[in-house]
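check this:
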Amino acid sequence: MDIKTITEEKDMCRVRQLDALRLYGGDARERESDGHIGRISEDTVYGDEEVYRTLNALLFEGIKNEQERIWEEGHKLNPDFLRRIEETIQIYTDIFKLMKENRMNFAGRVIGKRIDRASSLSYYEDGFTHSFFSSSKRGFDSEFAQKYGIVLIETEITSNVPFIDYEKILKLEEYKNMEEREILLPPFLGIDMKKVPFRTVETQKIKDLGGKSPLGKYRLKTTGFPDYRKYISDSEKELWKQIMDGKEAAAHLLEKMNDRDKTQDYNEYIFWKEKVQLYLKIQFSQIWYGGRKN
């Protein structure tokens, strides 16, 4: 393979990674052959402007997240991400590769801010992020307070962890939501969380959907990305086989959830998700630390 071909392949991989990041952020516009951004894709996966709901739901343990999104909030998750799990895993790993390849060395810290549901705090109390976790450099935005029972979260990002600053990765014309000034942390990242005092202006200006002030304020500090290969005994080959064998059944069960079937047994879906999560933990560890699982 000549140098020109290698360079072209690297450029294509880079574009695919950038487009995966754009898609996660809600920008489903297609990239045209000349590199310009065109219209919204008609593909059921790459045209999903709420892709983050499904991508994140697959990363949480159990089905509590799906139940909240579907049965309580009235959203539907996209079963095509399960049927086409090979492409979905490529989206996950492309975003994480961007985090590794654009690793930032800096003195001090980066601070992001996020308004979240108070019920979400339980996801952070066990010391790691369960899904992708976004916050904003522009401060607490009341637009994201339109839910009942909110808390304020400040993320303190240190230089030893994978993350993405959208403004430093994407061009303005490439990403339609650049004004959000988003910072993105990966799933499975080590964190510490503690409660911190409010500033007066935060309780005065930020109200939830019922007009109530935030229930608390928390500081979430990144600590590092574990090498999960040390703790996972399953082989990549066996995990991949289980994922492929179970994807149609898992997609069917997600459709059942979308249909609000509360009598269905979803244990097979939960088991399948666990295999996806284990596989991604191995993949991310290999990307971050290098080498293969022994």
